[in-house]
Amino acid sequence: MCGIAGLIHRGKSSDIGSEMVSMLQSLKHRGPDSTGFALYGVPEENRCILRFKVAEQEDLSSGFDIHAQIKERKATVDERLKELGASVVEKDEATEYAFRYEFEYDGDMRRLADYIEDGDGAEILSIGRGLELIKDLGDATVVSDAYDLKGFQGTHAIGHTRMATESDVDIRSAHPYWAYPFNDVSVVHNGQLTNYWTSRRELERRGHRFMSNCDSEVIAVYIADRMNQGDDLEAAMKRSIDELDGVFTYIVATSDKLGMAKDVMAAKPMVLYESDDFVGLASEEVAIRSVFPHEIDTWDPYEGEVKVWQA
Amino acid sequence: MAGVAHKSHEMGLHSEQLSGRTQQRFFSATEEENFVYPWSYEVDFDKSAQFDAEGMDTPQINVKIRELMQQGHGTITVKNPMARHSLGVGILNRLNLNFEGSLGYFGCGLIDGPNVHISGRVGWSCAENMMAGTVVIEKNGGSTFGAAMRGGDLVCKGDVGSRTGIDQKGGTIIVGGRTGAFSGFMMQRGRMVILGDAGKNLGDSMYDGTIYVGGKLTDLGVDCVEGEMTDLDVKWLNDKLGKYGLEAPNGAENMTKLVSGKQLWNYDNLEPTEKKLVL
């Protein structure tokens, strides 16, 4: 089933970490397997943020060598960053297997991403100037506590509670998806794409890599690919309504925008609340009410509808 | 025919008399044969109660409503429903029930008898399988509004989502604004009144029933065709809309009437009442 949510503050930043935790916790019943956040903080000049993992959570309970392997894998990432001339300014260890680096780098970001992921067990969750993508097993509170998300200041965010259907219960298959190798683009999705393999092969032929077998990853890469070809976010999303087949509602975020799209069958839910300085959207109104407990006017977007908001 | 109707009433099969595929006669609240469930609570509409639902979960709220009915309260107001799902469901009783706020999914499903007023909006599948009574929503509604509804009046004064009245089997759905795609899909009976625009595939594969649209039609579904607007239609529309303080934007006489073309029919000719006895 899955639950998706998004929020954007217009012209100001807020504690989007706490807000998104509240929204996703209220959608827990739509998917208790994993929870993910794409949080857009306030970017610093010449500074990029890398979120990556070197093992799955379940790996920790298998094998005697995993703890040593994790250290080796992390050391490999460090060496490769240094080798490419990236200057790591700050390192945080959220869990034993997931890390947050702030770094300065003016080289080819795709080369950097490919080189890091070429290391054994390494997977980049996100690279961006504002984007920080965090996902793990458990509900929103569990993930938030593990990664210390409450108090995260930023302008906009998207999130996802997953009920695994067509792929595994692991971090790799959890949402949101970063649109490798493009900075600051992320997607959450509720639904099912019926032309997943066709779309994926087409994008792979264009040089894109996929880390999972989850159909939602296609949307992230598709949108980023279209934007790379010159479409703006809204144009890319409108095109997706025709070119992606199936039932879907998805939310996409870039460095300064938030958008939503609904397929022509309108089979997946979405509720919207929009005021002068805030937009909230979610699979169910209870998520928006967790941030705005007072009476508000909300509505459902219609079939084939695409909307984009600026931070 | 009268004998058949009487027999099916004895069996407790339905609360409306049917005398033709597109005609309905609803029971009168003043008549003795009016159907009342044996386990219904005796309530007094002048005896009112209210409670604040903040901090309560869905089962607690629904149980509280039943407790108040059991105590004879015929008018109940629930404050701060906070868009929780499945509120006010399965009420098989006469009752004036007011929600001050919005409901989530499946609000007022499977009700038979109460008059419900909701000051906010409703989520998906409001009044699904509703059998009798009225539900009036002041703001917007989600998709599958009134799905499989069997009787009563379901009124949303704002816009509603897609698949409104899917599998509608009776009663009246009124939408003050627009409605989304696939509304009236597989409609079998009853009436749907859309004062605003209707999304694509309206009335797709409808077997019977009538849809009136006051705004623009995007397109019609398979076997949905334009019908002839009669004086009776106009009178019925004005009467029905007037009860809820609504009116057609360009006059009821200028609404578009849509019915089944009945080219997809592949059924026997038994009347529904007869069919119930056969089955």
- Total strands of chain A: the figure is 16
Please tell me what the overall shape of chain A is: globular
| CATH superfamily caption of the largest domain in chain A | Aminohydrolase, N-terminal nucleophile (Ntn) domain
- Domains of chain A, number: 2
Strand order of the largest sheet of chain B: 3-4-5-6-7-8-9-10-11-13-12
Given helix and strand content, the structural type of chain A is: alpha+beta
The DSSP helix count of chain A reads 8
Helix content of chain B: 10-25%
Quaternary state reads heterodimer
Mean pLDDT of chain A: 93
The greatest interface between two protein chains, and residues involved on each side, is: A-B, 18 and 28 residues
Beta-strand portion of chain A reads 25-35%
- Average pLDDT, all residues of chain B: 88
Strand count, sense and barrel status of the largest sheet of chain B are:
11 strands, mixed
Q: At the first level of CATH, what is the class of the largest domain in chain A?
A: Alpha Beta
Strand tally of chain B: 13
